[in-house]
Amino acid sequence: MPADFISNLYVFVLAAFVGFEVIRRVSPLLHTPLMSLTNALDAIVVVAAIIIAGRHETALSTVLGVVAVAASFSNMVGGFLITDRMLRMFKLSKTKKP
Question: Alpha-carbon distance 82 to 10, whole Å?
């Protein structure tokens, strides 16, 4: 295995572990702002996936880039819809009280 692959795998595993620990410890009151931040980061992933898919270096990289675009885009749209719905629920609950 090339050294770059092992170091990239090491960084990926550490980032996944740190991300899991950070998300797990978030209080429920901060869930909506955190979802908005995650959606913004996912939009950056969509742009990176489009760049990877557009390079056409190998067939595998193109296919994986297209899969990454589809997965990131569906996650981003779903996250924005859920965040919008949660914000509307909070807005309606405040207007119902006299």
Answer: 32
